[in-house]
Write a sequence for this structure.
């Protein structure tokens, strides 16, 4: 009886100890983790506000490092590929989808082909894995003309190869691509395309704007029920959200202002980037692009970064429906 009594007495203490070990100290959580490139335009002000604290707002150049963070409690917010992010969030149960940030900066560019659109006779380069949105969205448009090779390391790997393209549309020394194959089509994203067109090399001479298709428009024409191709999504740590709803609301208000400025006031974005550093190389290294690219790609509301209208309603159910459509 004595042993049983002692065990019963200690049980509440043990349970309390377990709860304490699982309690999150929100003051020690970093604010934001996001990948380098297009998504940073949606957080330009937040990044600049944390210019002296790289850990509080961490821009990850190796996107494969991000998924594991969905299983931890290190960041209040994570920006990631919406499809994969939702899968990671569902596995861990630690994060909740909050908002769609970018929805269509893909471009399909004709090079050597004489066809108006891709066919199964063409040689096509893309980026991403079979499980990622670039491949899935493209395959919905052209199921009979799949990528001949896709750079699973992302658009930056594709960009690096295309900078070496020859004048006859072949690629030089690359173990993944037959050196005798002429590249007919390229599936790429902004701002990588802008970078290519304005870089030294043969691509700018091969590029014909008449055969540069915005994939978001092609997708909407074929599937009018979708206004955007869901790309970067904002996720919030669920525990933090449940206990700090006013702070989350304030952050969302800030995000909406940044989205609106990215679409309608690129000059504000550019000036804010200058406050981070007026050195264009520093801007490039930090954001993945510099202010001149922003001014060119976002002028006159052309929105080549594919920033989502802050008033656009798109919840987790919408994301699930979109992913189910891509997988069907």
């Amino acid at each position: 009886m004595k042993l049983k009594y002692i065990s019963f007495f200690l049980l509440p203490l043990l349970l309390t100890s377990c709860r304490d070990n699982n309690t999150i100290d929100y003051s020690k959580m970093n604010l934001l983790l996001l990948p380098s490139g297009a998504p940073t335009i949606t957080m330009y002000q937040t990044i600049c506000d944390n210019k002296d604290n790289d850990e509080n707002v961490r821009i990850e150049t190796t996107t494969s490092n991000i998924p594991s963070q969905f299983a931890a409690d290190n960041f209040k917010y994570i920006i990631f590929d919406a499809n994969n992010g939702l899968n990671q969030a569902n596995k861990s149960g630690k994060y909740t989808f909050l908002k769609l940030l970018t929805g269509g900066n893909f471009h399909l560019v004709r090079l050597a082909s004489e066809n108006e659109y891709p066919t199964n006779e063409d040689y096509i380069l893309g980026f991403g894995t079979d499980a990622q949105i670039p491949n899935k969205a493209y395959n919905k448009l052209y199921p009979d003309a799949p990528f001949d090779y896709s750079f699973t390391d992302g658009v930056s790997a594709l960009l690096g190869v295309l900078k070496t393209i020859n004048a006859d549309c072949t690629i030089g020394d690359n173990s993944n691509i037959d050196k005798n194959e002429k590249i007919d089509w390229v599936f790429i994203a902004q701002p990588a395309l802008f970078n290519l067109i304005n870089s030294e090399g043969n691509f700018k001479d091969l590029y014909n704007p008449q055969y540069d298709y915005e994939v978001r428009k092609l997708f909407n024409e074929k599937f009018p029920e979708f206004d955007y191709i869901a790309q970067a999504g904002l996720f919030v740590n669920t525990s933090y959200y449940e206990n700090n709803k006013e702070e989350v609301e304030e952050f969302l208000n800030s995000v909406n202002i940044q989205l609106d400025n990215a679409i309608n006031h690129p000059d504000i974005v550019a000036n804010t980037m200058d406050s981070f550093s007026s050195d264009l190389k520093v801007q490039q290294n930090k954001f993945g692009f510099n202010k001149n690219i922003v001014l060119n790609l976002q002028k006159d509301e052309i929105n080549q970064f594919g920033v989502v209208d802050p008033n656009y309603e798109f919840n987790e159910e919408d994301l699930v429906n979109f992913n189910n459509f891509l997988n069907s």
The chain has 14 helices and ten strands. Confidence is low (pLDDT under 50) at residues 1-21. The first helix runs from residue 2 to 22.
